[in-house]
Amino acid sequence: MNDFFSDNIVHFWWAVSAFVVFVLIFFKLGVKQILAAVDARDEKIARELKESEDAYTKAKHVRAELDARMRGAEAEIAKLMANSKREAEANKLQIVEQGRSELDAMRNRALREIDAARNTALVQLRSQIAEISVQVAEKIVRQQLDSAKQEQLVSAAISAYESVGKAT
Length: 168
Prior knowledge:
mainly alpha, 98% helix
């Protein structure tokens, strides 16, 4: 094993020195850029995290505002529904009252028409009864009157008519 180290010690030192030079060059040239890229990435992630937190806060605020508006709209809808129900009830009562008024008017008009028709029928009935009574009386009187009594009755009727004509 001693021979392995003694034969390769020169190569080992050259490899170590090349590695050290590589590391020095790497640190001199690459580390700053890598660190700058890592720092830029950290800043970008922090900025995006801050933006997402701001967006989340804003979204929560907008949601709270929309919820408040929704509750206000629901309250307004409930108020409008209550007003509509009251108006519908008022219209219903008005229509029912108007219907009752029209029904009473129609009933009164029908009663007046019935009374008028009854009165007309009574007048016609009385007229027909009077005609029938006159015809019956005429038949009875003709059967019982002779010509002398008939002349006497006609003269009495004429004189009664003339006396009524002079009085007016």
